Amino acid sequence: MSELPTKMRAVVAPNPGGPEALTLVERALPTPGAGEILIRVAAAGVNRPDMLQRQGQYAPPPGASDILGLEICGEVVARGAGANRYALGARVLALVPGGGYAEYCLAHETIALPIPAGLTDIEAAAIPETFFTVWTNVFDRGGLTAGETLLVHGGSSGIGTTAILLAKAFGAKVIATVGSQDKAEQCRRLGADVAINYRTEDFVEATKAATGGQGAEVILDMVGGDYVPRNYAAAKVDGRIVQIAFLHGPRVELDLRPLMTKRLTHTGSTLRPRSPAEKAVIADALREKVWPLLAEGRCKPVIDSVFPLAEAARAHARMESSKHVGKIVLTV
Ligand SMILES: NC(=O)c1ccc[n+]([C@@H]2O[C@H](COP(=O)([O-])OP(=O)(O)OC[C@H]3O[C@@H](n4cnc5c(N)ncnc54)[C@H](OP(=O)(O)O)[C@@H]3O)[C@@H](O)[C@H]2O)c1
To answer: What is the reported pTM?
Structure first.
């Protein structure tokens, strides 16, 4: 292992603002603590929460780096006390609470996973945030099983494309909502059974039509606001609605009667503030249930575009354009 430098390039947002607020800085190399590994980053995924952090609306949890970036892939170059799961030189991907937009990044070894065979660095870096999120929300909390129907809003997003791939791989039927015909076509190509352009079609009616009038067993929602009562209407009796964001806002006036009469479960979660131990449980489930599928090439992440680290602002502008389908990745 060659000698490590003492400094690295990293991207931060010292003053909240648009994509131009992202600033390339020089930082000291972080030192791995107990149970941590230091990864020489090859690629880092870009996620919608990074936009919120840049705008000053989503502070890193206590103890996390102020450097942006929630997911990486690269090579293990140093290990903290007790970290012996991966050898120096091992190629891993990792979910991190911050610090991903950098040449080096710390990860807890229990939340790092080996890179499935056949995946490039760019594909591997595009996995952690959406696969952890979809697994814990659609399968753990939502309890989606084979033969059931998943309605996923934002079907062309990083989260949405992963939800389509995983739900189909596990034998569910998928209905996706998107903002254009082109995105609808791309979701169908990924395996969605039905793709609804929400600008021209009512997703409640379309979901009922696609399920023989029954509705969807599980709904993954990042929109909130006016979608909440419509989700209740689109859900099947005993349906589970899982909230992961509020693009239309968190406040809503609501008739709660369908919650009782249809015996609905409305739940939700965030990922970033959870403890390493909680994230490790999700990592273990992914390794057991999803890694074999990735190795078979059955649910490869969808890559929209790739930008060098120094051009992170262009990557953010691309995400904010909402023209992307799938993941945007930075190469380091
Ligand atoms: N709770 C958690 O643990 C967790 C973890 C990760 C991400 N998230 C959330 O999940 C969402 C997706 O994340 P991502 O990284 O996959 O982002 P992304 O790729 O940028 O996806 C956002 C999608 O939402 C749709 N959209 C944007 N504005 C909208 C609006 N006003 N109304 C309806 N749809 C809108 C866009 O598709 P259209 O053009 O089709 O509208 C876009 O594809 C984000 O809101 C993020 O904060 C939550």
So the answer is: 0.97
The helix or strand, by DSSP H or E, that contains position 176, with its residue range, turns out to be: strand 173-178
CA distance 87 to 332: 22
273 CA from centroid of ligand 1 (Å) = 19
Where does the pLDDT of residue 1 fall: very low under 50, low under 70, confident under 90, or very high at 90 and above?
low
Element containing residue 187 per DSSP (H, E): helix 181-190
Q: What is the mean pLDDT of residues 306-315?
A: 98
Beta bridge partners of 38: 78, 106
Task: Please state, in angstroms and rounded to a whole number, the distance separating the CA atoms of residues 92 and 79.
Answer: 13
Residue 51 φ then ψ, to 5°: -65, -45
CA proximity to 218, closest of 257, 167, 184: 167
Among 241, 268, 286, residue whose Cα is nearest residue 71? 286
Asked whether 156 lines ligand 1 (CB < 6 A), one says yes
